[in-house]
Amino acid sequence: MALIVQKYGGSSVADADSIKRVAKRIAEAKRAGDDVVVVVSAMGDTTDELIDLAQQITPLPPQREMDILLTAGERISMSLLAMAISNLGVEAQSFTGQQAGVITDSVHGKARIIDVTPSRIQQAVDAGAVAIVAGFQGVTQHTNDVTTLGRGGSDTTAVALAAALQADVCEIYTDVDGVFTADPRIVPSARKIDRITYDEMLEMAASGAKVLVLRCVEYARRYGVPVHVRSSFSTHPGTLVTDAATEEGAPMEQPIIAGVAHDRSEAKITIVDVPDVPGKAARIFEVVAGSGVNLDMIVQNVSVASTGRTDISFTLPATDGAAATAALTRHQPDIGFTSLQYDDTIGKLSLIGAGMKSHPGVSARLFAALSDAGINIEMISTSEIRISVVTRADQLDDAVRAVHTAFDLDSADEQAVVYGGTGR
Amino acid sequence: MALIVQKYGGSSVADADSIKRVAKRIAEAKRAGDDVVVVVSAMGDTTDELIDLAQQITPLPPQREMDILLTAGERISMSLLAMAISNLGVEAQSFTGQQAGVITDSVHGKARIIDVTPSRIQQAVDAGAVAIVAGFQGVTQHTNDVTTLGRGGSDTTAVALAAALQADVCEIYTDVDGVFTADPRIVPSARKIDRITYDEMLEMAASGAKVLVLRCVEYARRYGVPVHVRSSFSTHPGTLVTDAATEEGAPMEQPIIAGVAHDRSEAKITIVDVPDVPGKAARIFEVVAGSGVNLDMIVQNVSVASTGRTDISFTLPATDGAAATAALTRHQPDIGFTSLQYDDTIGKLSLIGAGMKSHPGVSARLFAALSDAGINIEMISTSEIRISVVTRADQLDDAVRAVHTAFDLDSADEQAVVYGGTGR
């Protein structure tokens, strides 16, 4: 008998019929002899509708009130799901984030989990019930104020709860069959990955793969929670995210490359003619960080000896472009650059695989593939298990396809899947 | 500077525009120098929509889950109202029933308030903020389970909070101008009552007046909370419910009659040919009480000497008719009655006024008025400040008008108000 934490996103519980279908699946897992704890997101478009209501009231709603408003969504889905399971003759009780012991800091709108003390969930499970827990929400430690966890919050709730309950697995149900070697909308021959390491999954998530958010994978890695990403529309096994890419006892010959991720949400800022003296680069990144912006890739050109000046480029989320540009322009006098170029028509491709550590020639093969496809590389950055390149946005799809093929990731037959983002 | 608790029902916060209108009213009260605590119901039809969703899932939803589901409604309205007030530059924070310290028993769906410990509300008020509290909801003492208070629950929340905060007044905002001498839909010349005692208001509520529920008035009387029932669509004073029908210093000549209430929701059961021996009536009411039904009026006819048998009639909520009938039929052998008649085409008229205690002839005048109007009286019951009669349902409106006129309650000019029930 195992303890399983299952998480269902908004599209899996979009209406009464979907809720009944999910309830049947949960009841079957329970009847098969496992203990089941379920984390659920708000129904379908509920969150968007609530945001819209708030916008009708005020363009800048206070975040504390916004969190109270949004958490109404999970309250509705969790109670309906508990009703649907009870209706199948399986006992079920729903619990708010607070009742489930999800304690967070007080950063409304994107709170971080500090601790999970799920004694009530454990009690419900011990008593033979299925516990349904509201995803995406928690309470602050001392004031019991309601908080939300931000994007991907329900996935994070599920993994955190699985860690606290020492669950055997955390199953993340979504509308795709698992994690793919590339986005099947761009690469129809992309293959589902059966197993992937936390490190690879982290790099995939950080590089634009949308199936799991970064913080959820970070949490799973820190606490060693096996995460099973699978479809709520089929019973096929999905992708197991764990600390070894192969099963114990299986041959350790793991594939070099896990997959190709892409990201279209970044922009590039180039700061032209920066005096090439110590401290100038540091000053730039200080200014940018001070505006609350996270940088991604950074490239400093070789200094032109005759002028003693250089260009510095970096990428950042396009949504932060205005803030960073404004901050830099404000500090133009003390940094001493000539001009600033902003470019949001870039794309980023990342090749990820723990195998590349021990296999030389991966980057050579990547660059050759891109070159053969006539794609120009504007920036490069690497980690031990990832190589990322920046291209023109309109060449990104071609780049992903070329690289996917060059590393033998194409499957024999084309998949017929719809690839979408997860809910919150 | 006073501390005012205001309660707004669902129709007052039905959409974004209504919420903004109510927010303006609250902000004005706050700017006028008073401390303001607001209790709010769910928006318009939200509760019905949530009930409908539950019905799509299962015909018999577990009450615990139903309570979690329904409390989502106040979460939405309270956070939106807090946003709207903040948007006007007045600080506002919303609080759930739990955060406001509303502790109840564990009878889901119609929990009773055990205690109110509003330390967080007091803190918010002391800090200069308007506190918005979810009506209709609380939590159980030890398990922190979410409960709802049943019909009229938000009014009860408001009065209970006003008592705990020792507020100067509890203002119940509704879609009518106050409490009327009769339902203006039936008696267009009905007058708004300026002041009414708790006792009279209790009898009004118990006799079918829908503007305030019984438990809310009971709570107000027990803790001496002045309740001001008024319209959210105007600034006219409404009806003040308090312990003296006249202001201090004002002449004590209070009107004999406060008003005429009517109730169309009852049914009558007549048990025919009951053996007129001690204990039989007690046995009947034991059986009915055992089925969870509350009786209202009871009449036992004079025993027919030749047979030693009698008829017993009582009224009860029509919704309890099936349960009571089934219980009595099951016990027909040991009670020993011949037959049972069920009649749900009755109406009840009640004349209420603390003045009738000291004014003889009130009942004579009532019966004369009904007789003159050609209306037959089927049952009568009286208390110190109330006389109730049962008539045919289709004669009830005529009866109300006749009695209203007979006791000089008609106003000079007809009111142009719409009289409706309150929200929850």
Describe the structure.
The structure is a homodimer of 424-residue chains. Chain A is of the alpha/beta class and 424 residues long. Chain A has a domain at 3-175: Acetylglutamate kinase-like (Carbamate kinase). Helix content of chain A is 33%, strand content 25%. Chain A is built from twelve helices and 20 strands. An eight-stranded mixed β-sheet of chain A has the order 3-6-2-1-9-11-12-10, sandwiched between helices. Chain A has a four-stranded mixed β-sheet with strand order 5-4-7-8. In chain A, helix 5 (153-164) runs parallel beside helix 7 (214-223). The model of chain A is unreliable at 414-423 (pLDDT under 50). The interface between A and B is large, with 40 and 40 residues. Chains A, B: It holds the Pfam family ACT_9. Chains A, B: Residues 269-345, 351-424 form the ACT domain. Chains A, B: Substrate binds at residues 47, 74. Chains A, B: Belongs to the aspartokinase family. Chains A, B: Keywords: Amino-acid biosynthesis, ATP-binding, Diaminopimelate biosynthesis, Kinase, Lysine biosynthesis, Nucleotide-binding, Transferase.
